[in-house]
Amino acid sequence: MQRADHVGFAVGSLDEALWFWIDGLGARLVRTGEMGGEFLGQVTGAHGAKVRLVV
To answer: Per residue, what are the HEC states of the chain?
Structure first.
């Protein structure tokens, strides 16, 4: 592998994960959103799933 575009984490609690990254490590919240549909099913194999995301 020569580079990575991004990394994702699946967490049990988005609120607790945000606390860890922002308050604990000093990360900056850029945006929030939701994703679902055919594309998500194609890239994850979890057809019909919906996810909440933060960047």
So the answer is: CCCCCCCCCCCCCHHHHHHHHHHHCCCCCCCEEEEECHHHHHHHCCCCCEEEEEC
Long-range contacts (CB closer than 8 Å, 24 or more residues apart) made by 14-22: 14/52, 14/54, 18/54
Nearest-5° Cα angle at 34, 26 to 13: 50
Segment 3-14, tens digit of pLDDT:
988 888 889 999
**Nearest alpha-carbon partner for 52 in 7, 4, 8:** 8
